[in-house]
Design a protein that fits this description.
Part of the ABC transporter complex PotABCD involved in spermidine/putrescine import. Responsible for energy coupling to the transport system. The chain is an alpha+beta fold. It is elongated. The chain binds adenosine-5'-diphosphate (ADP) and magnesium ion.
């Protein structure tokens, strides 16, 4: 029975639109979350993350599109009939109740008998490793402990899906990193589907099986952390996940998706790059190149001429800030032990890279 319930945790969003006056908070989002998957919704503030979560939860209703959970359409179903757990940024525990009473509260609302309530609440408290804290009041707990209680309360009635909206953003950095791992382990242990909202790319990459990157209410890319970092499909994703050098240029020929083709950079250099999507001959391009993909060669070698401005030693690597011939600032990261002698500021060098590491996007018309 519990096992079957777990397999009902898939979520399907189809053509979701949500407007607030002139603003499309959700602008045509379709995506599928697999049962038992940990999906992060990642994007800058105002990109529509909370609106999507609220629509899944049933606290908002879409202007267009459908929400399907566990194979059943719930677009117009009220929140209390969707059997979902929710945890928000602020701990919304009841201050006058003990920890155990807080956790048992959703069971009480569901009419579960007192003895069963207490047993299930204690089990949930064990799951978040706070078994000896049941008799305390929320105010007697640290921020991290309070957030764990909030999680215990959200999972105590065994929902098929757990929705979390920036649940760690009020915690300090060390605790936040600890909780990221803990929540991930808990999710695996109980096999629940999680949709987790965050604006923090490291948090999303650390926790999620797949990440949905949002901008202005639109889904930019949905993929595993590795795919997002190594194969961004839009300049926005290349900029938002990790660090990227950008160049502008023009296609020296037509190219199909994934092909290497010649590019004339606006700074004068002739290079080859990897086409992301089909590219027409002569099209304006934005090129993205990761700092760690750049290699240093002596001045005058074939590649991109640059002048070193700063060499910053950070232990496992050296970050170089450089100025290109056109005055643009570039960033290169040379790993420690690459047999590299740190260049001095003012030194002229050449930047080289593998053609396939420069990703070319056709500029929006
Ligand atoms: N209840 C609301 N009334 C008016 N505008 C809203 C409301 N909720 C969200 N918005 C707007 O919709 C957009 C997306 O908001 P939101 O989903 O909260 O983004 P995020 O969670 O990514 O920060 C923003 O422009 C926001 O101002
Ligand atoms: Mg939000």
């Amino acid at each position: 029975m519990a096992e079957a319930a777990r397999h009902q945790g898939g979520i399907l969003l189809e053509g979701l639109v949500k407007r607030f006056g002139p603003v499309a908070a959700i602008d045509g989002v379709s995506l599928a979350v697999q049962p038992g998957e940990f999906l992060a919704l990642l994007g800058p503030s105002g990109s529509g993350k909370t609106s999507i979560l609220m629509t899944i939860a049933g606290f908002e209703f879409p202007d267009a599109g459908r929400v399907v959970i566990g194979g059943e359409e719930v677009t117009w179903t009220p929140p209390n009939r969707r059997n979902l757990g929710m945890v928000f940024q602020r701990y919304t525990l009841f201050p006058h109740m003990t920890v155990l009473e807080n956790i048992a509260f959703p069971l009480k609302m569901r009419g579960v008998a007192r003895a069963a309530r207490e047993e299930q609440a204690r089990a949930a408290l064990r799951t978040v490793r706070l078994e000896s804290y049941g008799d305390r009041r929320p105010a007697q707990l640290s921020g991290g402990q309070q957030q764990r209680v909030a999680i215990a309360r959200a999972i105590v009635y065994r929902p098929r899906v757990l929705l979390m909206d920036e649940p760690l953003s009020a915690l300090d950095k060390n605790l936040r990193e600890e909780m990221q791992i803990e929540i991930k382990q808990l999710q695996r242990e109980i096999g629940i589907t999680v949709v987790f909202v965050t604006h923090d790319q490291t948090e999303a990459l650390t926790m999620a099986d797949r990440v949905a990157v949002l901008d202005h209410g639109r889904l930019q890319q949905l993929g595993a952390p590795r795919a997002l970092y190594e194969a961004p499909e839009t300049p926005f994703v290349a900029r938002f996940i990790g660090e990227t050098n950008f160049f502008q240029g023009r296609a020296g020929g037509a190219a199909s998706d994934g092909a290497l083709f010649p590019v004339q950079l606006d700074n004068g250099a002739q290079i080859h790059a990897l086409a992301v999507g089909a590219i027409a001959a002569g099209a304006r391009l934005t090129l993205a190149l990761r700092p760690e993909r750049l290699r240093l060669a002596p001045a005058g070698a074939p590649g991109l001429a640059a002048e070193v401005r700063e060499a910053i030693y950070v232990g496992n690597a050296t970050t170089l800030l450089l100025r290109g011939a056109d005055g643009a600032t570039l960033r290169a990261r040379i790993p420690a032990g690459a047999g590299f002698s740190e260049p001095a500021p003012g030194e002229h060098v050449t930047l080289q890279w593998e053609a396939g590491d420069a990703r070319a996007f056709a500029a929006a018309a």
